[in-house]
Sequence to fold (91 residues):
Amino acid sequence: MVDTHLIFSKDNFDLKDLLLKSTVEGEVNGPYLEADLLNDAWGNPYTIQFDPKHKFKYDIISWGRDGKPNIKDDLVLTYDAALVSPRLSGL
Fold:
């Protein structure tokens, strides 16, 4: 996991925040995401949903072609830092 040195609240996190640069000198300072990756293949913005019980677990969601939530065409990628191999955790 890359430490961006940016402070985010789970209540107001936005992928656009990853377009910002860190203010910590000597660190990888971003941006961490290219602007054209903020939207899914249909041009809809991705949604981030955090798991309130786990600090480093969240879903990145595409609501699919229709852009409507909780429909059969939704695509969900779940990230859980507890399941990441220690050898890969520094990436």
In short: Residues 1-38 form one domain. The radius of gyration is 14 Å.
